[in-house]
Fold:
Amino acid sequence: MINLPENELNLAFTASEPTVLSQPNFWRRAGRSLLHDPVALCSFAFIALLAVVAIFAPLIAPYDPLRQFSNGLSYVGAPVSPNGHFLLGTDASGRDVLSRLIFGARVSLLVGVVATGLASLIGVVIGTVAGYVGGVTESILMRFTDMVLSFPILLFCVALIAVTGPSTRNVVLVIAFAYWTYLARVVRGQVLSIKEREFVNAARTLGVGHVKIIRKHIIPHLIPTIIVYATLGVATSILIEASLSFLGIGVPLPQASWGEMIYEGQQYFQSAPWLLVAPGVALILTVLAFNLAGDWLTDILDPAVQEMGS
Amino acid sequence: MTSWFLRRLLQMLLVIFGVVTLAFVFAYIVPANPARMVAGPQASPQAVASIAHQLGLDRSVWSQYVSFLGRIVHGNLGVSFALQGRTVASEIWIALPYTAVLAVGGILWEIVIGIPAGIIAAYRPRSVVDRFATFGALLGLSAPPFWLGLMLIYFLAYKVSWFPLNGVGHPLIWYMILPSFTLGVGGAAFYSRMVRTTVRQVLRSPFIEFARLKGMPERTILFRHVLRHALTPVITMLGMDLGYCLGGVLIIESIFGIPGVGQLAYSSISTLDVPMITGTVLVAAVFMVFMSFVVDVAYTFIDPRVRLNRGR
Amino acid sequence: MKTPARDVPLKVEGLKVYFRVRRAFGKARAIKAVDDVSFELRSGETLGIAGESGSGKSSVARSLVQLTRPTGGTISLAGAPVTNLTGQRLKRFRRRMQMVYQDPYDSLDPRMSVHDAIGEALSVRGLPKAEHKSEVVQLLERVKLPATVAERYPNQLSGGQRQRVSIARALAVNPEIIICDEAVAALDVSIRAQVLNLLKDIQHDTGVGYLFISHDLSTLRFMADHVAIMYVGRIVEHGTSEEVFSNPQHPYTRALIAAVPSVTSRGHRRLKLSGEPPDPGNPPAGCPFHTRCPEAIDQCRTERPELVTFDGAQTVACHVVQLGRARVAASGETA
Structure:
């Protein structure tokens, strides 16, 4: 599942002019409009909260996520439902679900952010080079992008993990290797239109070098797109990581990943539904928060879309 | 027209060739020791060596690649390692009908939910319906399908027994309702958002205003103008969407116990059945490339402008 | 500021700019945007190029500053050929010829302050960063903008102010020639006059040469010393401003001038232009103007007229005009 801005087609084909980030008071105005948008505000607040939870997990979690409590299992050996001691109950091994959930935030955010960062880097470099240089270079790079894009993203990740072996590092690399293509395509489209603009021509006629033109006149105009895609990319990466873990080939076992928790919980879900509800809700809220944040950023950074919304 | 068609055909073949090459690289070059992977950690060195020979791993990369290509051209995807003596192609062939029904069902859900929701939301922006649709769409995009599937099973199959728990049986449709719905929810959400955006754009375009001024009934405007424009991007997405569904079946089939291609891929991962993994991924990718070709060609017949704009 | 030597001419000979266009339905074909165009421009002078959109005047500008490579012909600056330069030599050449663009809203990077935009040009000139600030102020002063503008961003400036900043940026590298491609077309009439006067002042002070491209003949009449009229990639009439405006010969020139109310020339037959200029990818045989020319004769449909000297510096590419001159000459002999 890939979440792209719904105006992806517009972005790719017409590359509408993004807002001027460096224009004075931009961030102050953005902040003010954020205050007037409770949904977006909640999303950013949730993301911030999540980051705090992930960073300070050992301080926040009530217990060690790997500890198997003797009182964590009922006398027939079943998971214990939520109670005063275990706020979200325990799992089939007698481990505290809340603690595992809190440590799981680490995995999700780490994989989401690092994979997206890597994907953005690759996507921007390839998209920019393809768009700016053009010609044969562009053809080769874009055909390669098309090829990677032809693989269904989840199936592609699964197959890659299957051959490289499951590890946190591989999960990150595989997701990055699948997601960069989306950014590369959009970035190329934007660069194609930016490089035809008069201010780029003006810099060229002045004799400004290509590297400097890319750095000073092209990359700054890509930043809104990159921000939007990166935000949505975090949501996508988290979902892919959860899916991989759910299939048993994600982040390796003792670590508590949300997908992993759902995978383990599904065997008991008829008797212990909380094993599914807690990590499921955590996943939905996290992905939703990133999607909503991405939506808001699309609105604020792209005046064409903003206009449409009113 | 013919030259455009041939160029596009050639481009498709090129991408398929690249996809096959990429699959080869991942199956044979990326793993440090594919034979050991196939044989499993407990296998004896002799077994590993014999498998290496069987896979042709003792030959040069180039000759492996050439024979890999040769096999693929003849539709030979190799022999499964986990399921002794069965060819990958025949296994996929047996599993395919289930996946096809599931994927088509998923797309039907996407269209049946996504398009009307998008149109209604666009006609009444900021209304309760719009907000509901928008939020529902975001929720649909954000909910992991495997979790959604489990919830549906828990409430609709386990708690109230409206639907079968899992597996397949007669009539097949009955067993496919929940799985295809789970598969389609994400796409429905995506379509509703996309349709909403396009319809809103169309509704404020001058020709709609003109049609209204002319006194054309709103229904006619909707069916003759709005729908046509709103469906254009949807058609483009359909090709990509099938691929998305193919990725999704992996998880859906494993949750609902449907013996389709996704289940095949899933079980081959746990047994590290490399020929089977490569085979299923390859079939999915080639299918996707082919679909995007079909969509492109179909599109050109619908709207000749596309040819000129897309000529790259 | 250094004053460039007065004797630096820009010489363009047989310039050709073709674009290859691939059609969905068939083979590639060439669009001759500029076909065999020659002219000269001296420092301190202004050459105006006029024509409808699609006449190839902007392609001339873009090939001069090497944004598009010319397909053929030579461009030389101060006697040295500048076509097909690469690397450092291209960079050094670029500073000598600058351009002011048509769209004031697109020619300045919206993410760069005025100071940074002009500073970029100063860096190209090799001026150390420390001296940028005072130099920027000086340049702004030269285009009659207050020093406070330096800290502004393009979206905080009016169209006229932006165009002045563009001019300042061009001046920052001390060019010998500035190409103004419809540089005032997007401005209000009142502001247009101010910018034109500014350009004239700058020319007076620095001796820079202008290649002034415009579809607006009244602007050209005000600015240009020489005028060239282009039609579908070719120059159809060329001469001093005085010659062309007061005694236009080519039917196309006459039609253009007739269309401008205030510049209507005395006593000449008024001509009305109808129809569209032909597709430059598929120009008609013979004189490209014959499809719209009320005076076309059979020869015009088959044979392409060459530029022939009419009188003084004035050259015209028209069979009818030549025929008329021949007739006058003949009658003069018999008389």
User: Anything to note?
Assistant: Confidence is low (pLDDT under 50) at residues 307-312 of chain B. The longest helix of chain B spans residues 218-256. Chain B touches chain A through 61 residues (CB under 8 Å). DSSP finds 13 helices and no strands in chain B.
